[in-house]
Amino acid sequence: MPIAAADKDAVLAEKRARFAAMLARADRVAAFTGAGLSTEAGIPDFRSPGGRWSRIKPIAFEAFLADEEARRESWRRRFDMDDEIRSARPTRGHMAIASWVQAGKCPAVITQNIDNLHQDSGIPADAVVEVHGNTTYATCLDCARRYEIEALRAPFLANGQAPRCDDCGGFIKTATISFGQPMPETAMRRATELARTCDLFVVVGSSLVVYPAADLPRLAHRQGARVVIVNREETPGDRYADLLLRGEIGDLLEEFVL
Ligand code: NAD
Ligand code: ZN
């Protein structure tokens, strides 16, 4: 093996050992996950080359409210990715994180993901703090009635109209937070509390550029928690992180099942 590669392996082995020690020592781990955790499950992220971002512009909340064509386009996109979402299964990274929760190390996972895979990995729903909502169901924006995606599909395919609430006529939208839409208060309060009270904050698969969610690791760092970032690319949080595990999330985390 060339010397440079051997050095790299030694550095990674040393980093893994440090992470194992940090996990063993921690009493309160806050896991914070992003789209990179789910790429192994076949759901593309936003910012990797070829990711969704490079192909389609997101529809802002204001446009959704103002424009029937924007609502229709938003629903077309949702049904286009339905197979991807429904066939996705939790990854090696999801399973490692679920084991931290089950071991009592991690009171809750904060996620920017909208794919429900943390719940599917066995983490109780009340221990998944979704700061950007969930796309596996929909709600009426006016009366909050819940609708299942499957039930909305046939009428949409038949008449091409964006769905409206049977009870109040309000717009039905996937239960996700679009750009320009207010952040969910309870989830943000819980996420902030977790960041404020953890002793180890582990970022997994986030580019850390979407605010206010990306402030959370910085908050954890300021209050004295160790911060670990697991990602294949650099992030703005690398400056203050205590440990960077750079590479494929599944390969890196599969050995950290507690
Ligand atoms: P992002 O797309 O901005 O960043 C993902 C990061 O993960 C990138 O830095 C990328 O290099 C890294 N990455 C991707 N696959 C990886 C792998 N296998 N191993 C290691 N690193 C990997 O994601 P974000 O920070 O979560 O922000 C995107 C926003 O879009 C989120 O707010 C989220 O709500 C939404 N989103 C969610 C999903 C989902 O639910 N699965 C998918 C796409 C976008
Ligand atoms: Zn309604």
Question: What would your notes on this structure say?
Answer:
The protein is α/β, with parallel strands linked by helices. It has 2 domains: 1-44 and 90-132 and 183-258, Rossmann fold, CATH 3.40.50.1220; 45-80 and 133-176, SIR2/SIRT2 'Small Domain' (2-Layer Sandwich), CATH 3.30.1600.10. Helix content is 40%, strand content 17%. It has 11 helices and 9 strands. The protein has helices at residues 3-25, 52-55, 61-66, 68-80, 82-87, 92-102, 117-120, 149-159, 185-197, 215-222, 249-253; strands spanning 29-33, 108-111, 128-130, 133-140, 146-148, 172-176, 200-204, 226-231, 243-246. Strands 3-2-1-7-8-9 form a 6-stranded parallel β-sheet, with helices on both faces. The longest helix has 23 residues, at 3-25. Bound molecules: nicotinamide-adenine-dinucleotide (NAD) and zinc ion. The site of nicotinamide-adenine-dinucleotide has 27 residues, from loops.
What attributes does this structure have?
three-stranded antiparallel beta sheet, 258 residues, 9 strands, elongated, six-stranded parallel beta sheet, Rossmann fold, SIR2/SIRT2 'Small Domain'
Which of globular, elongated, flat, extended, rod-shaped describes the shape?
elongated
The number of distinct structural domains comes to 2
Series of H and E elements: HEHHHHHEHEEEHEHEHEEH
Radius of gyration: 19 Å
Strand order of the largest sheet: 3-2-1-7-8-9
Derived structural class: alpha/beta
Question: With helices defined by DSSP (H or I, 4 residues minimum), what is the helix count?
Answer: 11
Mean pLDDT: 95
CATH class of the largest domain: Alpha Beta
- Spans of at least 5 consecutive residues whose pLDDT stays below 50 are none
Write out the distinct hetero groups bound to the structure: nicotinamide-adenine-dinucleotide, zinc ion
- Write out the CATH superfamily name of the largest domain: TPP-binding domain
Beta content comes to: 15-25%
Secondary structure: number of strands: 9
